[in-house]
Input
Amino acid sequence: MQVILSIQAGKILPSTLLRKLGSHSRQNKLNKAFRELGRVERTLFLLRYTSEADFRQSIRAETTKIESYNDFLDWIGFGGTIVKSGDPVEQAKQIKYMDLVANTIMLHNVSDLTQVLNEMAVQGWELSKELLGRLSPYMREHLRRFGQYVLDMDDLPPPLMPGSLKITT
Output
């Protein structure tokens, strides 16, 4: 509690506190207190995880989303998953470019999915939350990953016209 009050009062900077905790021995009283607090938090988390099925399900669902995105990024990476440069600027550029390409593909996928789903709704299909929850923007089967691409910069795509879906509960 004293540490929090000291940080809030501006008597110590969080960076200074972290530096102290990182440089001093494990015999430091503050270090021991934080280690024990961490153990308590971990125990409370594990007790909640083992006793609440909904909590476990939400963690699995979020983990699956993250793993799916990372798998999608790995697939997009033409040169593999390894950042080849030791230069931090080049590393940051490669990661940002990969995210840009991934976001572009996902936007295209979501746009196409929305159009198809709207057509299905017009045909009388019922679009439930369960059905839509199973869809993913990480589809790649329709993409040609390698090969020769001819870009015609004068051939502009139609404007993106997002629409809302009628979802049944």
Remarks:
- Residues 64 and 141 are 19 Å apart (CA to CA).
- The chain has a mean pLDDT of 84.
